[in-house]
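Researcher: Quick sanity check before group meeting.
Model: Go ahead. Protein one:
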Amino acid sequence: MNTWAVPGYTESLELGSGASGRVVLAVHRETGIPVAVKYLSESLHTRPGFVHDFRAEARLLAGLDSPYVTGLYEYVESPDGAAIVMELVDGVSLRSLLTRQSPLDPEAALVILKGSLLGLADAHRLGVVHRDYKPENVLVRPDGGSKLVDFGIAVSTGESAGVAGTPSYMAPEQWTGAPASPASDVYAATATFFECLTGHKPYPADNLAELALRHIDSPVPAEEVPEPVRSLVRRGLAKSPTERPAHAEAFVADLEAAAVAGYGPQWEERGRGRLAALAALLVLLRPPLRPRAETTTDTARTVLRSGGGGGGGWGHAWRPTRPGLLVSAAAALLAIVLAYGMPRSDNAAADQAAEAFATTSARPGVESGPTSTASPASSSGPAESSAPVPSGSSPSGSQGPASDDPTATSSSPGQEATPTGSATATPTPTTASPTAPVAPAVKDVAVSGFRQTGPTTGTTTVSVSTDGTGPISVTLAWYTGDTSGQLGTPDATPQTFDRSGATQYTFTVDHTFQGKGCYWAVQATTTPASADGGASQQILTRRCDIR
């Protein structure tokens, strides 16, 4: 369990937890504003790739100023932990609502779909694909409105980030590791809409392989939903992304036209009223989420906005300003320096210098900076996100219980640019003796883009990040098997690649498989061993025989 806590907040209640971390209810001491604090788990915080992904999620939320997406107040990082401080949504998850009453009235289901689609639309306009739309990640407020949460595995449109998502809601192209597309979010939203209308998921299955094949090959079960919305379900669950609405905004237009034609111009008012009654009941049955404010000095100098805003919460979603971006950039680099360059010490002054700091301000024009004495200078680059299963759990979570639904996916953390240095030899009157190159520390290994290219062939991309330019070896081992989440039986002889002269290496490797299992896997390790222990990825092949 995490022992580190964000400075300046008083925590009172755990809202949810999982392998990737936990979400707790807290109050900002200086302003009295209730917030939700999402902590990266202690075990994942020691793995640089997951810290990259967590930081990338905060960076993404900082740019999303939408009343339909939970707002970011600040991202906080120290050598002892990392946390995202978010707007607290006083509502319940759609999953909790469906557990209480399912199926929903069509008009209420349409209201939920429209609200969360508007959140997706705001993300899609910024070139962001959520990749994990599901009932657990939609929060319904007592007024019947809804908000989208958990961008833990979101990526940029067109990015190849491997197989990731929640299997019951994954589009066919997500199972094959195709580049991220807004149409995949449309598919997941439609699958959730189908569940709201029928009380069950569109493609039930006994195992992961069968589920994948049903999503890829089975007909759309549109006849199970009310006739006025069948066209919506057919389009949203189309097998090819080109046959679906290209993005959420286009799907909203289709939804409104179908809703008015099938249920009349007052459909949204009636649906919101029914939804509000059910959501309000569930909120009343649960312990209150508004803790009492305390008056204590805020050592983190965090600035929050207490007025209402477009986000509908107690604070408004933060929009990047020039001061905020500068602070974020400086703080991100300082986090790198603290993580890799500062020796740990029991000295009180050193501990104080390594204290956690806020990276953003929620109010334009007000500075918010670190409390430590270190001086950051620049920012780190954007990071990829993924939801690894064979080798770990994704940094995800929301203001509710974390989902443990497995996926066949890769560990594809982002990478930091690492400065390189050169050793200066001291000249002597005679001859200079060459110095043997020193092997660097391997900071990060990522396996991404693993996909099947033919009946027996596959390809993958490997990325390695080091802290020096000395020689390293990268070994790829291939496996086949019939069990999800396990590497299986070794397939042929591992391949070893020697590299030197840089701090980052990326290369693509092809392999011809000889085994007959349903699953293929690849594992990358290095010499010297990497800080994160290496990386692996597993995919489900199309040649699997389901009996």
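Researcher: Fine. The other one?
Model: Protein two, sequence then structure:
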Amino acid sequence: MSFHVPEDLDMSFIQDDELDSGDLNSAENLNIFNDEDSQPLFEGARVTTGAFMLLLALFTSKHRISGDGIQQLLQIVLLILPSTHNFSVSLQAFRDFFKHLKNPLKKHYYCPSCSGYIENPMETTCSHLICKKEFREKVPYFLEIPVIEQIRSKFQQSGFYEQLQGRFHQPADDKYKDIYDGTLYKNHFVNGGPLSCPENISFVFNTDGASVFKSNNTSIWPVLMTINELPYKIRMMRENMILAGLWFGKQKPSMSTFLKPFKQTMLEFYKGVEIISADRGAFVCRGFLLAGTADLPARSLICNSVQYNGSFGCWKCLQKGKTAKVGKGHTHVFPFCHGDPKGPPRTKENVVQDAQEIVQLKQTKNIQNLHGVKGPSWLLLFPDFSVVDGIAIDYMHGVLLGVQKLLLRLWFDKSFVGKPFNFHNSSSKLDELLECIHPTSDVSRLPRSLKDLKYWKASEYRSFLLYYGAPTLQSIIGPDYFQHYLKLVQALFLLLKFASTTNEIDHAEILLYSFCRQFANLYDECYMTLNIHQLVHLSDSVRTLGPLYTHSCFPFEDKNGFLLKTIRGTQNIDSQIITGISFVQKLPELKEKCIFKDTLEDTLCKSIENPNVIKRGQQIGEQVYILGAVKRKQLDDVHFNALTNYLEIVPFTDTFLSFNRLELKQQLIYGIDYSRMIKRDNSTVFFDTGTLKGFCRVHFFCEVERDDDIEIVAFVNQLSCQNYREDTNIRSVQKTNTVTVIPVTSIKSSCILVDLPKTNSCYVCMFPNKLECD
């Protein structure tokens, strides 16, 4: 069951002053609304008390209504209720109604000096031999939100068990569509492996620091998990992510301390826990930690390895790198190794060996690491976890915020003026070209000027890399730099593509090898950072864990942003976050119990959840809906002749039912005739009739009668494309004035049209996948 979480959800209306782990661990806190909540709000009412309270909670949180505002709203509601109502009108009663929704949690204490785990928080000195310091202040703690209880709650939702079974219905081919197609998952699936059992599940985890306030260095470090067996879009929803732990304060977590309860939970899950499913009944479920993803600083913490700017900083191979001069200082770089670009390989076995040896060496020698390993990692204690292959390369931080951001700086930053690779004098021209681009509604952010580059988000770098960059840079940067950049663009498209083939992944690897090999000659060896080096391992990341989007940090960063929005004040940060996330995780369960599908309450609930949702009209096919008004339209001679050619018969009338907007398999397609689209362009599509395929721009849609049946057709201008290739997503096209007609069923996907009138160039950009759209 899916449930959209409002972007600006505010849970302050049910906020506690401080967490009480004892109260929150009680059994009554695990129950959802009682039977009284299923009763009508008052005798004869069409809405139940539970549904009314849920709608009111969503409304007040969505619009950030203060406590005083809620109190006044409750009093207004009281004025119209009969005396026999079952509604609590005080703010406290309203808060109490939701307090039992909080997840159970556990506090774990640690030494403020050494960050070592404290078994007994009542002790006055640290029990660790290396510390033994006296506690002069309140012993700090971090939170564990028990994973098993959260999973049990998920299984109680109807339909949840069935959603986990999609991996058994995948076609048998060599294409990479999801994490199931990677070798790491297959190793747990084939030959009767544990993940071949429909009752078992696996996880990808993430942890990263997020700054809470601009005025101080307080940060939060959540441990988040996704359930791999859920369909991609459902597993990435905020309410379906598991918040396993929360570290907060002014210092980074000690991972050996922070991950200790997490490890114990996964050991228990590995053995199997009892689950009661609304669909399946009672059974034993086993859970496996399959992979983890993080940015480079967080990765070094969880792996207990050196930072990205140190020797042996790569977690996939044992290349040492070297020190290079940059400006007045020095940096650590990883030059391209021509003989063995991605070797020697780092393995779990040599990580274990290095961890054991460095512990002994530290006792007698001043050595801090061995091959980049600083000591044992707690990840080595997780059952069946591959500490090398299971740590993903995150393309969000590595490629977008790393490589693409670096290239834009080298090309256009003033500090590099005079370098052969710098084109700062043409930056205004690039801005003009970017302003001409009207992306589809799938892209949340419009192109921005290079003047705002320091404010660009990772999604904006992704749009530039995959769609805008190549078309706009062709006339700006030198041909050698442009051809070099195209290799990165094409490779990333293939690695992000839904259903890439083995040959395409191999081709992407060749392109990235060539990109890295030429980089130092075109720019300088001092810019061959770890982010550049990791490109040679990127294809292996897909082979191991599936397409790059299945293990990127994008969804986790979104969840981190949401967690920060739940913080409304400087006090009791942990309480605020747990309150908000608990409410969000319980929303699907609350809605299932309180609000019936396709009722007025359901419609109102959806409008509060997502006020921007487009109202669907008539359904005209599988996942195809008319949007907006349907009007009668008289065709002019050009469009009438085009329809005649399509039908191969002269229609008996020139007036047809017409509309401008369509939703096709969750894609919005708006005809050029839809005048309200100013900054967006949803008219360009890729079509395939079986005998003809290519690109076109839709003018409008019509209902026509053909063979005693009603058919929906699109009137289009075809875009002439000289060479259609499936290994690249950006194609040069030419506009035509010829109007043709195609059936709506032949439209396969929407595309971005990059029309650059000042250069007389026009390009069509295809999405590598529609799973990761903004």
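Researcher: One line on it for the slide.
Model: Residues 513 and 536 are 6 Å apart (CA to CA).
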